[in-house]
Each structure stands twice: as structure tokens, then as C-alpha cells.
Amino acid sequence: MKKGNENANVLLGRRIRTLRNLKGLTQQQLGEQADINYKFLGEIERGQQNPSINILVKIADALNIELAELF
Question: Is 14:6 a contact under the CB 8 Å cutoff?
Fold first, then answer.
């Protein structure tokens, strides 16, 4: 079960990074817009953190996308 969670975190992180890059934002810029630390954002993008739904909502809002688009 743990391996599946790790894979999901990596896939989610890659999706966030892709969307961030498409918007032309740095991790620091997105972090500021989402009101989260850019280092934490980097850990999410690398699949090292499992963000809460509240954090994902902040990221989606900062990217100006629907939450479902993160998945």
C-alpha cells in the first residue's frame, strides 16, 4: 500500500510542476500566490510530501484552475 501512495504523490507532484511551468511561474512565485512555503511546494512537486486538501485548494486557486485539474 505504501508504494501506491508514493507513486500517487510523485504523479501529483509532476502534475503540479507541469501546470506551474505552463503558467510560467517559479516555485517561489506559486508559493507566494498560494500562501505556502516554496520549499514545501518543492517537496510536494518531488513527491516527498503528502499535501492536505486545503493546501491543494490553495495551489489550484493560485494556478487559477479547478481542484480536479490537479488530478
Answer: no
